[in-house]
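For this section, I looked closely at a protein sequence along with its fold in token form, which I now present.
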Amino acid sequence: MVFRLAHISDLHLTPPPARGIELEPKRWLSRFAWRRKRRRHSQEALATLVADLKAQRPDHIVITGDLTNFATSQELRAARVWLESLAPADQVTVSPGNHDALAGAGGHERFAPWAPWLGDADEAEFPQVRVRGPVALVNLCSATPTALHLAQGVLDAAQLQRLPQLLRRLRGEGLFRVLLIHHPPSVGVVSRRKALRQAPELAEILCAEGCELVLHGHAHEASMSTLAGPQGLIPVLGVPPASGSGAHGETARWHEVEIEAGEEWRVRVTARGLGADGRMAELGRYRLHPTYLCESRDEWTDLA
């Protein structure tokens, strides 16, 4: 059985017009930055990418955060409308990003409008698990308000406490475990001011319990790294923004992850992106060796 997973991230949907004067300092600063950087994100590019993704008919879509820019209630509602247009909620899983919790009160309850897309519990809580075919999607939330000029991620104690037993149970059920998180858990993928604060704690859990694959966003570029697992290295893959215009960065791109069950897992990743002609095309593909047999990134076979 082959399960086809589509991975997109960092949509940065165009925000609705602001209402009144913005009193929250971080939102005010971010709106100023958006005026300078909004050309880096194109809703036309995003629409082209989504049309291409739908044409490939994946079994499930995962979005690793930053649907919004300023985390206003208006944006969260507008993002929900966008999600409704993408696919039925049980076919899409969203892991919120730092821009989705830019300012305001902390806590996961802010994501209540997105509850049907967070997991099958239909609640704004984490971690959540969705089992689809041979795959278990383990959804974490690293999104939290931070101080000015910071974009760090945080995994609260409740998530870290529940995660080991969850991974252990899913391994016992023979499922391919895909961990979803906005912030990259590998050291060095992003700068310290953008990093996941609990990366060491998460790495320790994964070293003990393992998972087969980690998908993230946040870096705004394609990235490939690894974390130690109980029997070898765990692949950690990031994808560029789904709305990337190519202005000072990568163009819109998504990844198709094909997971084939058998005596040992087979995983193939296909990158599709926006070309200079404005059309989506295959950029390349590569195969991941069975996760726990991988000893170095050099052993990953490039099929591009």
